[in-house]
Amino acid sequence: MNLLQKFEYWGDRHHPKWLDVIRIALGIFLCYKGIDYLRNTSELIGLMTNRSPFGSFLIILLAHYVTFAHILGGFLLIIGFLTRLACLIQIPILLGAIILVNITQDVTRPYSDLFLSIIILLLLIYFLIVGNGPWGIKLPDEKKRQITE
Hints:
- The protein is mainly α.
- The protein has one domain.
- Helices cover 77% and strands 0% of the residues.
- Helix 2 packs antiparallel against helix 4 (56-79).
- The model has no long low-confidence stretch (mean pLDDT 79).
């Protein structure tokens, strides 16, 4: 059993059902943010242009990646299918949001997004380790493995 399988096994055994409610809420929030970015793509591109060293084509490409990843990853988190993959595609986005966007703003202002971004990042890392939980959709080989154990 390699290290990844040990993490999966530990995550499957130590996952209370109330954490699935948090996973579903996180997925709903990420879907909402993705739809919000889809509605306000020009504002997202403007924010990324002001704070990143990339060219305009790469910024447009990143803005579309962020939008698509939030919507798809949020949906996958809601239904609990491919949870680790959904978290893995979200983590670079949150790291970029913390490093490029939120750190350059005034952190002490009343409605700073830095703390929200850090909380979301920590939740994504947690669900990357523990997986989808008992209320998630399981792959066929996961169902067989749980029956035999």
